[in-house]
Amino acid sequence: MAPPAGRRIGDDFVDDSDSDVSITGLEDEPSRTKSKGKGKAIDRNKKDKGKAKAKEQPYAWEASYTRSWETVQEDEAGRLEGAVQDLIARGRRRRLLAPAAAIRRTIIRHLVLVLDLSSAMMDRDMRPTRFDLMLQYAREFVTEWFDQNPLGQIGVVGMRGGLGERIGEMSGNPQDVLKAISERHKLEPNGEPSLQNAIEMARSSMSHLPTHSSREITIIFGSLTTCDPGNIHDTLDECLKDRIRISIVALAAEMKICRDLCEKTGGQFGVAMNEGHFKDLLFELIPPPAQRAVARAGGPGANPAADLMIMGFPMRLPDTSPPSLCVCHSQMKSEGFLCPRCLAKVCDVPTDCDICGLMIVSSPHLARSYHHLFPVKPYAAVMSLEDTPDPSKRCHGCSVAFRDTPSTMFGAAGEGMSPLGRYRCPECHNDFCTDCDVFVHDVVHCCPGCGK
Amino acid sequence: MDKPSHLSVILDLSPTQWALCAQSANPTGITLQTFLSQLLAFLNAHIACKDENTLAVFGAFPGQSGMLYSSTGEITSARTESTDANTYRPFRTLDSTLMTLIAERLESYDSTTEEAPIGLVGCLTKALCYINRAITTSSSSVTEIEGAVASVDPRILVLSVSPDQSSTYIPIMNSIFSAQKLKVTIDVCKIFGAENVFLQQAAHLTGGAYVQVERTDALLQYMMMSFLPPPAIRQLISVPTQDRVDFRAACFCHKRIVEIGFVCSVCLSIFCQPVPVCSTCRTKFPIKTLQRLRDARPLAAAAPPTKPLAPKNGTATPARPG
Lengths: 452, 322
Ligand SMILES: [Zn+2]
Ligand SMILES: [Zn+2]
Ligand SMILES: [Zn+2]
Ligand SMILES: [Zn+2]
Ligand SMILES: [Zn+2]
Ligand SMILES: [Zn+2]
Prior knowledge:
The complex is a heterodimer.
Chain A: H1 12-24, H2 38-56, H3 68-71, H4 81-97, E1 109-116, H5 130-148, E2 153-160, E3 163-171, H6 174-180, H7 195-204, E4 214-221, H8 232-241, E5 244-250, H9 256-265, E6 269-271, H10 275-283, H11 289-297, E7 308-312, E8 315-317, E9 324-325, E10 332-333, E11 336-338, E12 345-346, E13 351-352, E14 359-360, H12 363-367, H13 370-373, E15 380-381, E16 423-424, E17 431-432, H14 434-444
Parallel strand pairs in A: 1-2, 1-4, 4-5, 5-6, 7-14
Antiparallel strand pairs in A: 2-3, 8-11, 9-10, 11-12, 13-14, 15-16, 16-17
Chain B: E1 6-12, H1 15-23, H2 32-49, E2 54-61, E3 64-70, H3 89-107, H4 120-141, E4 155-160, H5 169-182, E5 185-190, H6 197-206, E6 210-212, H7 219-227, H8 231-234, E7 245-246, E8 249-250, E9 257-258, E10 260-264, E11 270-271, H9 287-302
Parallel strand pairs in B: 1-2, 1-4, 4-5, 5-6
Antiparallel strand pairs in B: 2-3, 8-9, 10-11
Family (chain A): Belongs to the GTF2H2 family.
Protein name (chain A): General transcription and DNA repair factor IIH
GO biological process, one term (chain A): DNA-templated transcription
């Protein structure tokens, strides 16, 4: 299920989590990684990431630590330094191989992720428990989803104790969504799930959305029962009317109502057979629906949904401004957004202006994906300073001093790495340190020297 | 202020803009000299607040950017400083390093040629690189102490006098997103000139303050009251909040700042007029859409390309009929 072009798992976010996992094991051996210079810097960098991750995952068994030993191996001398360098070097090489202009098709998507928090989720048929696995995959899902759908928004609803529970408001910021599902102790499963309550809650949170946008509900369902206050088929009809697409990943077994919900609304239904299959089913829901249709038709060139859309970028009013009526709910409010065409005040973006029909979006949402369009050229590793007449003494990014003498590399691991710890921008010919090389390409996406 | 905090200051040092600022009568302008003396008082206050506080100063010069001072000693002034028994030594080091470097840099500019736009993006990215390294280093030296990363509490203060450069829209947005990722707050102090759309978005998206200085003679007071307390304390005191945030973007074709744009659904490139082919991803758009948009165009074109900011007031919003 690869999208037509380019960057995918293994880039950016997902890669981050990958390397975190493989490093958690390393943290236990600080004495063995007796490294100097670059090795240390990298190690430190990675450890730091590992720690940040550790905060999100309070329990050791949540990380699949077993995997770290598949990727990290000791060298002949029994040291790990080579392996760490190798990890970094591989990251560098991957960047060099990545297509220069990876472009992906996007539409405006809105998704409510419904998590089953009923007692059935404590079942241990999936390691460590269905619940822990669901949280882990949900986090990975959210990061990857935002990477592929930068204009999208995700809300999170939980099902427990027979009620729907709003866990995260609709948000276009991945950090907000991840934060909502990061605290495990607040999501402790109990009681029965209620499909109807959860779907109704999800439906109401998507009622204001613009007509161009897709509305989707993705349910991770571990239970075999649902405890509903009314007739769930009425809810299904309402969803059909609102053109909401429901997809369900079931962890236990197939239920008739689940299959009906998905088939009638045009969503996907699947029952996970094991951990890997669960992830596959969930991640199949990441590419935009139109793209899935194209991929199924097998024509990567054809792009029937490509279109030019007219959009307005609003002015946001602060909550200290004099209150006025909004056009969407007719309520007195201070904060809001002004439509750039007719100056009507709406409560939330993205939305269609109720007065003039213009689609109003916040431009930072669009800009979040631009680094895919204009990536920073990979920096070249500087092997020796013989060709450089007047080498800079300090990193052009963070002003840290470069070392004068090259460090020795360990075997083939150092391939693509500079022995001097210098990486040069092909555009502006400034030198950068290892930390900045990684930071500029993975986070900032803009060269401090030439601004490209 | 129990936790040490890091402050990166970005100085807009465009000679032309400062000359305009000094001549300006309404609002009353301020000369670069006066500004720098007030700035030094503010910077000294920051390092005096707490012994562990760190400071870095970056200068955005026409077409260039560079670090001017850092409390961790990356930049040293060539001139040996004379010791003065009446001045606290760190103040003296800061003042002399900063003033010498600014003077050196500004003297080298030729006032006859047209001035290049200032290197704001370079400064922002350098400040981010510096903070990234500071965070990485501090968390490893203070190993195994929970929250070591948070204790740096980094922020960037941009002191701006130049107008928006729409050609730097994408790099600035990328910097904003990385600041968000590093949990860096970006504060903006606009000393002279019109509102700055991109810097407004920067402050808004990173939870910082955007302050338009109305009385330049009170600049020091503005800075002390709004930008001296680190973000952790701001919740307790009331820092001037942003009046309104302008979410306009720059089009890819002419680098014009637009409020209504035409957006490619594939790559989300923004254009200021309907185009048959997306210049970024080469997607061809259906003829039907183009005709529809061209027909609708008079409406869009009727809106002025740049929005007059002042008269539009949120109170004048029409209520929905029915
Ligand atoms: Zn409303
Ligand atoms: Zn409108
Ligand atoms: Zn560096
Ligand atoms: Zn460069
Ligand atoms: Zn244009
Ligand atoms: Zn395009």
